[in-house]
Amino acid sequence: MNETRKDYEPTAAMKKKAVIGAFGFCMAMAAAVIIKLALLCIVNHDVYAEKANNKHFSRITITANRGSIYDRNGEPLARSATVYKVYIDPNQFQSDMEKIGETMKARQEAIDKGEKLDPNKIVMPIEQLKEEVIQTLAEKLNLTVESVREAAEKDTKYYVLQTQVEKNVADDLMEYLNTYGLTSIKTEEDTKRYYPQNELAAQVIGFTNSDGDGQYGLEAYYNKYLSGTNGRVISATDAKGNEMPYRYSTTFPAEDGSSLYLTLDMTLQYYLEKNLQDMCEKFDVQNRACGIIMNAKTGAVYAMGTYPSFDLNEPSVIYDKATSDYLQSLPQNEYKDAYINAREQQWKNKAITEIYVPGSVFKIFTTAMAIEEQVVDVEKDRFVCSGAYTIPGVPDPIHCHKRTGHGDQSFSEALTNSCNPAFIEVGLRVGIHKFSQYFSAFGLTEQTGIDLPGEGSSIYRPEEKMSTVDLAASAFGQSNSLTPMEMITGIAAAINGGYLVEPHVVDKIVSSEGNVVKSFGTNVKRQVISEESSAQVRKLLQAVVDNNGGSNAYIKGYAVGGKSGTSQKLETGDEDKYVASYACFAPADDPEIVMLIMADEPMGESYYGSKVVAPYARMILEEALPYLGYYPEYTDEEYAKLDVTIPLLLDSQLTSAEETLTALGLQYEVKGNGDTVVGQCPLTGYTVSSGGTVILYTEQDYEPEFVTVPDVKDYTASDANQALVNAGLNHVAVGASADRTDVLVQSQSIPAGEMVEVGTVIQLDYSTNSQGD
Amino acid sequence: MNDIDQKLEYPEPKTEKKVSVVKVILGALVCFALLAAVILSNVQQLQLTSEITAKQKEYTDLQSENVRMQTELAGKTSNKNVQEYAENVLGMHPLNPSQVEYIQIQTADVVEIPEEEQNVFVKVKNAFDSFVAYMRG
C-alpha cells in the first residue's frame, strides 16, 4: 500500500501533547524566573538595594564651618577660612615626565629638520624641565628642593607636599603646572584658623590643633559651640564623583559652629599687653607678668594678658627671645624636654592658673572685714608701729618693712604706709574664725568659675589649722597663695558695694544664622560686706593713692583707688625672689574698672610693687579711662599746675605772642629787636610744665644759643626744676606727679652732657623713692 | 451544481487595509522627537545642576578667600602695627595727656513738664479713653 503524506502528519493528539509539553516547559521557565525575581526583589530586597545604593549613591560630607571669635566691638580675633593641601602622585609624575620628554624630543627633532614650530610650544631637555618644576614647587610651597625631589621619586600614588597653602598660592601653582599639562600634582581643600591679632590675648583665646579642635583657652572651653555639626548629601553621582540630580537625593545640611562675642576689648588688651612688655623689659622680670582689667560690677573681663605671650598663628614657636636663645644653647639630649616645658609654659594663662602670695594687696580684704565687723574705728583708732610686732607667746617678732617704724598713725595712714604691725593688730582683732569666714566669703577658697579652662585653686591655711602667727601673717598678705583671678574678683567685691560676682570672658554666643544661642549676664554669687563698708573701703583706698601718689597710680583729674604689694617667694627657698603687684580701680567713688597687675621675679633695680608695677598701672589707666569715656575733672590746684602745650607763634606779632603766652601762664624771652616772631623754642606742640619759658626770635637769620644738658637723675622735683631753669631749659614731668615730695628723677629724655638749644624741653621721668608695700 | 454552490457559502475574504507608509514614518519620527526631547531636557537639567554646583563652589571659595583677606587686613591694621608704623616710619609720638583739651559743650535746652496730679474723675476718663482706643484696635 502507498503511504501518503497524511500518514506522517501529526495527529491532533500529538499536537495537543506537544502544546502541553511546550506550554509546561515555558511555564516552568517562567516560574523559575518569577521565583528568582521574587527572591531578588522581595526576599533579598534590602540586601540588593543596599548594594545598589552603595554603587549608585555617594555620601558627601559637608564640613561645618567653625565659628568665629570676636571682641566686644565686633573685631575678629579668630576666623576659619579654606586653604589647600597640595599633594603629588609620584608614579603619575614620573609617567607625565616621560610623556612630556617624548613630546619635547619630537619637537626638537622637528626643529632640527628645519620645521617651524608654534613659538608658544616649549622646547627644553626633560631633566631641565623636571628641575624647574621641582624648584618652583619648593619656592611656592616654602619647602627645600631636596624634600620635593625626594617626594617626586617616591613609589606611591599619594604624598602630601604641603598643607595650609593659601588660595592665591595654590591657584598660581596650578596655573603654572597646567602650562606643562602636569596632572600629577593636585590640591584638596583644607581649613586654616586665622588669628589676625597674632599674640594679643593669646592665652585667653587659645588655638586649634590640626584636626580643628580647640586646644587651650576659649577655643577649647567652647569647642562644642564653635565646632558645629557636619552635614551630609546622599545622591547619585557620576563616574567622576560629581553629584547628579536625583529625585531621591537627601541633604542633611551642615550646622555651622556658633560664634563667640567676648567681653574683651582689643584696645584695652593692647594697652595692657604693651605696658606689661615694657615693664618686663625694664625690670627684667624672670617668671612672666600678667594683668587683668575687669568690670567691677558685672565681672566682665575687659582685658587679660600674660607676658611673654606667643603668636597664635604659630603656637609651637617659642615667642620669647631669651627662652628661645636658651633652648638653642642646650645640647641635643636636653633640648626636647626643655622645649616641651617652655612651650607648655608659654601657653599657660598665668592670670588664672598660677598662684602667688599677694603681699600687701591682701590688706584690702583685711580692711574690708575689719570695717564690716566694726573692730576698727576708721576715724578714731590709732596704731603705733615701732618697726616690729611681738605676738604674745611667740618669741620672734614680725618686722615691718620700715624697720624704724611708722610711729603713731591713723588706720588710713596705716593703710597708706602699708604698715604690717598695724594690720597684724587688725587681723588679731578680727580673729581666726571671722577671718576664715570672710576669706571664704570673698571667694578666696574656691575657683572663680571663669569660663576658661585650667583655672587654678588657692592654697590657704584652713580655720582648724590656723594659729595666731598664721593669722598675723595672713592679715598682711604673706601666708596664703591665690590666683590673680581670685584676687581681683575678691577686690571687686570689696569696692563694688560688697557683691562677689562671677567673672566671665564671653558675653554671648551667636549661631551662624545670627540668633543668640546663649547670653552671659552678671551673676552675683553673694554679698560679702555691706554697701556702707564697701564705700569706706573705696574711700580709704582712694586716700592711699591721693596721699602717696608717687607710689601709686595717681592721675591728675581722676579719682583712683589702689594698693601695691610685694611678697617674698619663700617657697622657692631663695630670699631674693619677689612678686610685685598692684591693684587699682577707677573712678574711685563708683568704680567701673578694677585692675590687677603682677610681675613675678623682677630682677632689675627694684622689686617693689610701688616701683615696678604701679607706674605701669598708671600708664594703662591714663589711656584706658579716656577710652572708656571718663574725662579728667581737675581740682583748682591741679588745674593751676597743668602742663601747657606750646601754641604756634611763628609769624605772629610779638605783642600778640606775649599776650598769648602770659594767658597760658608761660614766661617768655625775646631775642632780637623785631616786632614779628620768626622763630620759637620750644616749637608748637611741645608740652612744658606750668611756668615754663618760651624763647621768641624776632630777627631773621637768628642764631640760637646752645647749652649743655645737666644731669638731674635722682634729683628731687624742685632741685631738678632749679637745675634746668638755671641751664635755660624747660621740663615736663611724666610718671609720678612732680608735685609730690617723695619723688625723684629716674631718667631724663636727653642725656646729660648733650648740647641742645636754649628752651628745649627735657622730659623727666619721676618715681617714688619710698619702698613701702 | 447550483445546490452545491448554494450550500458552500464562503465568507467573503477581508480586504486588507493598506497602512500608509508616510503615516508610519511620521509616527516614528514623532516618537523619536519626543524621546529626544526627554533626553535633551535631562541633559540640560544635568548641565544646569553641574553649573549650579560649580557656581556654589566658586561662591564658597570666594567667601572663604574674603574671610582670609579680611583677616589679613585686620592683622595689618592692628593697634600694634599702627603704632609701630606711626613711630618708626612716620616719626610720630603718642599724644601726651596734657595735649588734650576737653571742652564742655552746651547741650540743647530741655523742657521738663511736671506730671500733673490727677483727680479720680480724670483717672476714670483716662481709663475710659484707653479702653476705647484698645477696642478700636
CATH structural architecture of the domain at 69-261 in chain A: Alpha-Beta Complex
- The number of distinct helices of chain A, counting runs of at least 4 residues, comes to 26
Mean pLDDT of chain B: 82
String of helices and strands of chain B: HHHH
**Global geometry of chain A:** extended
Number of helices of chain B: 4
Walk me through this protein's architecture.
The complex is a heterodimer of chains A (773) and B (137). In chain A, 37% of the residues lie in helices and 21% in strands. With 773 residues, chain A is an alpha+beta fold. Among the domains of chain A are: 13-60; 69-261, Penicillin-binding protein 2a (Domain 2), CATH 3.90.1310.10; 637-768, Trypsin Inhibitor V, Chain A (2-Layer Sandwich), CATH 3.30.10.20. In chain A, strands 2, 3, 4, 5, 10, 18 and 19 form a seven-stranded mixed beta sheet that branches. In chain A, strands 12-11-23-22-21 form a five-stranded antiparallel beta sheet, sandwiched between helices. Chain A has a three-stranded antiparallel beta sheet with strand order 1-8-9. Chain B has a domain at 20-96. Chain B is built from four helices and no strands. Chain B has helices spanning 2-7, 21-76, 79-88, 120-136. Chain B starts with a helix and ends with a helix. The interface between A and B is medium-sized, with 35 and 27 residues.
Protein topology:
The complex is a heterodimer of chains A (773) and B (137).
Chain A: H1 5-8, H2 12-43, H3 45-56, E1 57-62, E2 69-70, E3 76-88, H4 90-112, H5 126-140, H6 145-152, E4 159-165, H7 167-179, E5 185-194, H8 202-205, E6 207-208, E7 214-215, H9 217-221, H10 223-227, E8 231-236, E9 250-252, E10 259-262, H11 266-283, E11 289-295, E12 301-307, H12 321-328, H13 332-347, H14 350-353, H15 363-372, E13 382-385, E14 388-389, E15 398-399, E16 407-410, H16 411-417, H17 420-430, H18 432-441, H19 468-475, H20 484-495, E17 499-501, E18 506-510, E19 516-519, E20 524-527, H21 531-547, E21 561-568, E22 578-586, E23 593-600, H22 609-612, H23 614-627, H24 636-640, E24 644-645, H25 654-663, E25 667-671, E26 679-681, E27 687-688, E28 693-697, E29 706-708, H26 717-726, E30 730-735, E31 743-748, E32 755-757, E33 761-768
Parallel strand pairs in A: 2-10, 25-28, 30-33
Antiparallel strand pairs in A: 1-8, 2-3, 3-4, 3-5, 6-7, 8-9, 10-18, 11-12, 11-23, 13-16, 14-15, 17-20, 18-19, 21-22, 22-23, 24-27, 26-28, 29-32, 31-33
Helix pairs in contact in A: 5-6, 11-23, 15-17, 15-21, 16-21, 17-19
Chain B: H1 2-7, H2 21-76, H3 79-88, H4 120-136
